[in-house]
Design brief:
There is one protein chain. The protein has helices spanning 10-31, 33-39, 51-73, 76-99, 105-125. The chain is mainly alpha-helical and 129 residues long. The chain has one domain (10-125). The longest helix has 24 residues, at 76-99. It is flat, with a radius of gyration of 16 Å. It starts with 9 loop residues before the first helix and ends with a helix. The relative contact order is 0.17. The model has no long low-confidence stretch (mean pLDDT 93).
């Protein structure tokens, strides 16, 4: 029988917390896509309602998929995938800040959050914590 595995070490709790936040982001994108777009400062065009499906499908699907797999299977390699995903998200935002005149308070806060969400599972997955 499959049982839910609760983290037992500080490193596991760090990685698990990052996965839990990722799941929360995914649930918000799935059930409140317009709010998610407002928070992310994105706007859809009225004549393109299919744009909302991007939040529900692409964004929510990835966040929920990797977050749930990390929480349910609790394997270091899955936590590494979660951390790598967040690390490349932060990297992409930094590139945008440097190339697209995106140096704003919102981007600084976002890159700090993304870097933290990347560091937590990466430190555990690499055996550093």
């Amino acid at each position: 029988m499959i049982e839910f595995y609760w983290p037992t070490s500080q490193g596991e709790w760090m990685a698990w917390s990052s996965a839990a936040v990722t799941i929360l982001f995914g649930l918000m994108c799935l059930f409140a896509p317009r709010l998610s777009f407002r928070i992310l400062r994105l706007q859809t065009l009225p004549d393109h309602p299919e744009a909302i499906s991007e939040a529900r499908a692409t964004m929510a699907g990835f966040y929920l998929g990797i977050g749930l797999c990390a929480v349910l299977f609790a394997q270091p390699l899955i936590y590494l995938a979660l951390g790598a995903g967040w690390a490349f998200t932060a990297f992409g935002r930094i590139i945008s800040m440097l190339s697209d005149r995106g140096v704003t308070l919102f981007n600084f806060v976002s890159v700090a959050i993304e870097a933290a969400l990347a560091a937590l599972p990466l430190l555990y997955g690499l055996g550093l914590v």
